[in-house]
Amino acid sequence: MATEFTGTGDPARSMALLWRTPSSDGSRPGPRSALDVDRIVAAAVRMADAEGLAAVSMRRVAGDLGVGAMTLYSHVPGKGELVDLMLDSVLGELYPDEDVLASGGWRTRLKTVAQANWDFYLAHPWAAHLATGRPPLGPSLMRKYELELRAVDGFGLSEVQMDLLVTLVTGFVRGTVSGVQEKADAERVTGISEDQWWAATEPYVAQVFDPERFPTAARVGPVAGEELGAGDPHRSFEFGLERLLDGIGVLILDASR
Question: Which residues carry the record's DNA-binding region feature (predicted)?
Answer without folding.
Answer: 57-76
